[in-house]
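Fold sample X.
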Amino acid sequence: MSWMEGYLTGINRLQQNTFDVSPVTEAAIIGQMVRNYCTTQPTLRFETAVAQLMNFFSPYKVGEQSQLVEVTVGDARAALRQSTLKWMQEKMKAQGQFTGTPDGLYGATTKTALLAFQKAAKIPETGVPDARTLVAFIQKEAEAKGTKP
């Protein structure tokens, strides 16, 4: 984890127009994603898996500093950048699930839209913009573009 966090910090500092190389802000969750990926690709080197995951996230990186939004509903919890939540709201608005104005703030309208998106995506319905939900948005967009997520 320490190596991965240092690697991600290096990318954040050295890559132009990059505040966060990943829209997922919690290192432990990124670590779990890398672990899961390595489990499905046992011959892959750890550092290659991290690089490939960051490449997957690169179109969704956070380009400039954005407020951190922390959301808790029951036992479900997530932390993400306001700009990432705004992007999710824009996507849900285009799909007719979000009726408000995309602003990157979490409220009842966002929660309702997230529940509808999560139900349609067949993922746990928490109303929280967690990593699983964010990845579902990215996968849906990749599939719409005809690319392999």
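Fold sample Y, listed below.
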Amino acid sequence: MSSLKYLSLIFSLLLFHTAAYGQTRKNISQFSHFQSYFNPGLTGYEGSTVRGFVRNQWSGFEGAPQTFFFSTEIDFGELAGEIDPALMGKNAASINLLHDTYGAFRDTELMISYASRVRLTENHNLRLGVGVNYQSVRLDGHAMTTEEQNDPTLGQYVGSFSNMQFLDANIGMALTHRNYYFSYAIHRINGGKASSGDDFLEGYPAEQFVQVGFREALTPNFAIITNAFFRSRRDLPNVLELNIKALLMDKVWVGAGHRIDNASSLQLGFLTSKLKMGYLYEFPMGKRYLLPGSTHEFTVTLNLFRSNVRNKFEKDQVLIW
């Protein structure tokens, strides 16, 4: 990487408060496909699935963030043979694994979640969820930027490898319907105070998440899906994201999204009987154009038991969020 690009990256990171250890916030532009990662109460909302994504941020830049994610959700109602587990099933569990690299840091997060559902009406559920969050952060002291080397906390680890571990909990609740949902969750309710290893990070402040979605089939071959996502953490700016998608013939979707004052995105995906695959291209907006490169995000969801094909009893069902 040329020295000019290297200096540009450093300047951008400092200007927008996303220097290496500030990049601990993991952005997922297709957030609506990974509701249960942000809220344990939404575990199993779309049944038993295997999910994953790969995100390359600021692609083409050495040390730019890369994120890999894998999860499995099991709806015990489906395992028991419920006709409509989304309404009749009561319990679900999931395991989520996320690995993130950004500059000198390697961050691995393991989350195990459990959700229980209370049926409020014929079409509504109240979902409550809890999760255990284990996080391991590795610092490569050979890959620090000049600013990190001069940082009074990080500087003492120059030229060595250091590790830190955190153990915490997540909680969440959601009101769900086949066509809409409202949810609220908190990650790391203890603020990352239970830690071990070296001491190069000052904990992980609790973060709050609000997710809202609505979907409607306007014709048998055309549906609209909208989602909004808000997150708040005391040491980072608040984030509001919006997206809208159109599902065509239950086979292809196209959409667009916007992270307020940060970036916009375009997305494309397709469905088969069991599989959903999507691609998103994200580009910075306004002052964020100082940040180098664009972002590419690939997602995949495999339904383990139910099908992505509507039957005659579900003519108005929309198959994606």
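Sample Y note: The chain has five helices and 15 strands.
Also: The chain has one domain: 3-303.
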